[in-house]
Amino acid sequence: MYKALLGYFFLFYFPAVHAQVNLVPNPSFEDYTDCPYTYSLIDDDEYIFPSVTDWIKPTEGTSDYYNACASAGCEVETPAAAPGFQYPNSGDAFAGMYTAYSTYDYREYIQAKLTSPLVAGQTYYAGFYVNAAVVDGFWGCGGTTDDIAMYISETRLTDLDASTHLAVTPQIKNTEGLLLTDTSLWYLVAGYFEATGAEEWVTIGNFYGTAATDYEEISGSANDCVYLYVDDVFVMESTVLPLTFIQFSGYLNEGELFPSISLSWTFASPLNNCCFFLEKSTDGKNFYSISEFPAPDITPEPQQYSFKDIDVFPGNNYYRVKAEDNDNSFIYSPVVVIDNYLQQRVTAFTSDKIIYINNYTATELNAVLYTTTLMPVNKTTIKDGNNRWTCTGMPEGIYLLYITDKQNNIILIKKVYMF
């Protein structure tokens, strides 16, 4: 049997997640002084907020603010932002910045002052969500990276020179080797650290030089750069659940009659652990439990679990493990993404202003074409099987194809070109 290994291995000590106060002000960038109308509206003056409240930048780089309140067509409105179409992880807004170029060291960052200083010796859980904004064409970036991190400091980190990176050692880093290649997914970058005391600034960006930055081209854009969106930043107190995940991985079983996905995880030191829940999602955000495993008796030896999922979805399948303690605290593993490319229920491609849509859902679907400013311009019904949608009367340009079921659940979003 051929195995396509797609999981990520890691060694990480996880904090328990409790209902705690987030010390980051305006964590999802919802509060603003004025709606953004152009780029570069995150200022470097900690007392001036020309657009988004509480967020500034440490250098003269041109960090950007995006919000649904922006006027259509101004390129900083969500979700139709110019660097790449994307809905916020939550709310209506997010920040954006260049974090890498393949050949030189220009960097952009965002930063905020915490609502109160951290306490010496206290463990904190901190992180943010990040998305790679990739778009073809001259404006956009075609690359991605795994180098994105958070630095927590006692004083504000500043260096007006944006032509080089801020050379500090961040406390919270993305998993090494986990390239942000899925442009539809908001990746969680999170971890825990022990405060030395009096820290009250957070700075997010790439703290490595060009030679030390992992860069991978994933699009045909004219620009060899990485542009990332950031949303839902948090720093909160945390107790530590005494459990260490050593690895969590998975692969698609390709040689079987029906595709399945095999998953395994290994952990150590389950001193007060109650049980494990294997959770699954179709979008990387909304998870549900598919299996429960009791924790073993206390043992110094690493323990391994495995599970075979036979009810897999076409495309990406997202998995995580929830470890629950006897006191009802819990932690999550990082998410493992397995691409079931053997099944695609709905596919679409264009040729000479004709959209060919293959529908294998056994139900009728709705298809709507939008402009890049989300104005609907055409619609049709997609029958089960192979469909041919002729759009010869439409103006040339780039459109967004939305395919939904009869309950308006999104099945497919695809950029199409009419030329």
Please specify the SSE layout and strand pairing.
Elements: E1 3-5, E2 8-15, E3 55-56, E4 64-67, E5 93-101, E6 110-113, E7 123-132, E8 143-144, E9 149-153, E10 172-173, E11 187-194, E12 201-205, E13 216-217, E14 225-237, E15 240-253, E16 260-268, E17 273-281, E18 288-294, E19 303-309, E20 315-325, E21 330-332, E22 336-340, E23 346-351, E24 354-359, E25 365-371, E26 376-382, E27 385-390, E28 397-404, E29 410-418
Antiparallel strand pairs: 1-15, 2-15, 3-6, 4-5, 5-14, 6-12, 7-11, 7-14, 8-13, 9-10, 9-12, 15-16, 16-19, 17-18, 17-20, 20-21, 20-22, 23-24, 24-27, 25-26, 25-28, 28-29
Spans of 5+ residues with little confidence (pLDDT < 50)? 1-19
Reported for the largest beta sheet, the result is: 5 strands, antiparallel
Annotated CATH architecture of the largest domain: Sandwich
Task: Let me know the average pLDDT.
Answer: 82
Helical content (DSSP H or I, runs of 4+): under 10%
Put simply, the count of helices is 0
